[in-house]
Each structure stands twice: as C-alpha cells, then as structure tokens.
Specification:
Blueprint lengths: L9 H9 L7 H12 L6 H7 L4 H12 L13 H8 L1 H7 L6 H4 L4 H28 L4 H9 L3 H9 L1 H13 L5 H9 L3 H11 L4 H6 L9 H15 L9 H12 L3 H12 L11
Helix pairs in contact: 1-13, 3-5, 4-5, 8-9, 8-10, 8-15, 8-17, 9-15, 10-11, 11-12, 15-16, 16-17
Length: 285
C-alpha cells in the first residue's frame, strides 16, 4: 500500500527503502525478457546499453552487485556493464527475474505516473548532457559521469512509487508558488530532503563512493567531472518544458566556462547533444 504520511526520520526512510524491490520502466521489463530468451547471444555490453536510460534498472543492478561482497570485486562497480561482468550472464538473469513496471504500479494514479515520467525524462536528458560534456572534455570517467547524472534523482522516483500522494502535494505547492525551494517543501511534506535520502541510501547500499560523490550537489568544491553532472542536471531541469527558463543564461555561461567555449558554440553543442535544431537567433538565453 502507498504511504499516505511521511515517516518520522531519515533513518526510517532509509530502512523502508533498504530492501525495497522497486519497479522499472515497462520498456526495461520487456527488453529483459527478450534478452533472457536469447541468453546465448547476450553479453555485458548489450545489457548495459539496453538499460542505459532507465535509472531504476541501473540502480537495481548496481545495488545487487554491491551486495555480492568485496571479495568478488577487483575494484568499484560503477556501471551496469561492469556489474554484469562481475556477476556473469547466467547469474544476472537468475538474479533478475521478470520485473514489475512502474507503469503497472501507478496504473491507478495517472497524475503520479505523469510525475514519475517527468523525472525519467529529466534523468535521461541530464545523462545525455553529462555524457556530451564529458566527451567534449575527453574525460576518462565519461561513463561514470553519465551514470551519476542518470541516477541523480532516483530518490524522487522511489517516492513517486511509494508515496505518490505526498509527491503530488509537493508538486501542487510548487506550482502554486514558483519561488518555493524544492528542499524546503520536501522537508515540510516528507520530513527529509530527497538529496539527503539519496546519499544515505547510496551509503546503505554500499554503492561506489565516486558515484555518490559525483551525484552530490552539496559538494563544496566540485571538480570538472563533478561539474559535468551538476550542470547537466540543472540544464535538464531548466529545459524540461522548453528553452525559455530564466535560469538558462547562467547555465549556458557556466557550461561554456567548463568547456572553454563561447556563448554561441555552447548553445550549438547543447542542441547537438539533444539532436535538436538551434532556435532563432533572437532567443534571449
């Protein structure tokens, strides 16, 4: 049953989600079964590519790999592909049977499903931006940067699954007052900030420290790789409903400084990353 009231502490929320068998995108659930039916032709790279745009399936795989114990690991498991290499193909399919989809879980909550879909779309957009920035910088951690951006808002997705009525309260309040900070309304409605819950869950699940660090917007002095994730997630949020958000000029300036590009080349790169045409020249951002 969905939660109708917030839990009493951050620790309570972490305990609630620690062993939570969360759903995945319907597309991921379908693709998993297609891969299973052709197991002999499947490799770790194909599995990684298949789920590259699903933050919840990615999170499931990383969480499971982290639970296997350090004695089976030669290093940190930071991507789906390396996690499957660790597990092996047959054990992967044994560990991940048929999956419940978030579309099924929220079938009776169309507004909540819309909210979750918006987060999925934003996460995929952020991951594309982050990978594009990392590729431009020739960053050797490009795949980690992509994954960190993809997972940046996974706690929000978990909340849409488990506490849709509370998340709808947050969305309504923010629509009524656009100046209301997300952290404040989350604290008031949920009793926790989602960013703090996310960091606590990553620690509880023993996910890679580098991944957690790259996903932490509260890092005081982020390096260039971390800035790729930070700027990508900001851009994804600010462009979710178009390119007329008042914060975009600052975003474009920051990305340009990070990538050592001027204003127009930065704009061109952003639209190229998304495969979108550049807007008219009189656009204000």
């Amino acid at each position: 049953m969905p939660l109708l009231r917030p839990l009493h502490s951050l620790e309570a929320w972490v305990q609630h989600f620690r062993d939570y068998d969360f759903p995945v995108l319907a597309h991921s659930a379908e693709q998993l079964e297609l891969l299973r039916a052709n197991e002999d032709d499947v490799d770790a790279h194909l599995i990684g590519e298949t789920f590259a745009n699903d933050p919840l399936m990615t999170l499931k795989v990383l969480r499971h790999a982290a639970s296997l114990g350090r004695e089976r690991r030669s290093g940190e498991i930071e991507t789906t592909t390396t996690a499957v290499v660790l597990m092996g193909i047959t054990p992967f399919f044994a560990a991940f049977g048929p999956q419940t989809s978030i579309e099924t879980v929220l079938a009776g909550e169309p507004d909540a499903l819309d909210g979750a879909d918006a987060v999925f779309s934003r996460s995929e957009r952020a991951a594309r931006f982050a990978l594009g920035f990392a590729a431009h910088r020739m960053d050797p951690d490009a795949q980690l940067i992509h994954g960190a951006a993809l997972l940046h808002d996974f706690a929000e997705l978990l909340m849409w699954c488990e506490a849709p009525s509370l998340m709808l309260q947050i969305r309504l309040r923010q629509r009524m007052d656009a100046s209301l900070r997300s952290s404040r309304v989350q604290k008031e409605v949920l009793g926790v900030e989602l960013a703090d819950l996310q960091q606590a869950l990553m620690k509880a699940w023993h996910l890679p420290q580098t991944l957690a660090h790259f996903s932490n917007d509260k890092t005081r002095t982020p390096d260039a790789s971390e800035l790729c994730v930070l700027y990508a997630t900001r851009l994804a949020r600010h462009t979710a409903e178009g390119w007329d958000n008042a914060a975009l000029p600052d975003d474009v300036r920051d990305v340009g400084a990070l990538l050592n590009l001027g204003h127009e080349p930065t704009l061109r790169l952003l639209h190229d990353i998304l495969g979108e045409p550049l807007p008219p020249v009189n656009t204000t951002y």
